[in-house]
Amino acid sequence: MELNVSLAPLVALIAGVLILVMPRLLNYIVAIYLIVVGLLGLFPQIAS
User: Fold this and answer.
1) Which residue range(s) make up the domain with 10?
2) Dihedral class, residue 47 (left if φ above 0, else alpha if ψ from -120 to 50, else beta)
3) Number of folded domains in the chain?
4) Helices (H), strands (E): how many in the chain?
5) Alpha-carbon span 33 to 7, nearest angstrom
6) pTM, whole model, 2 decimals?
7) Most CB atoms within 10 A, among 19, 27, 32, 41?
8) Is 43 helix (H, G, I), strand (E, B) or coil?
């Protein structure tokens, strides 16, 4: 779980830069984020 917490700011930074460079990516980045968060919520053993 610690890995996900420390990895979150890095992922957010990369996503923000990609959205600034290519605004069309916003839909894909948000969709992938929601899928990952949903899977981690349904299967918490994946995160640990």
Assistant:
1) 2-46
2) alpha
3) 1
4) 2, 0
5) 13
6) 0.62
7) 19
8) coil
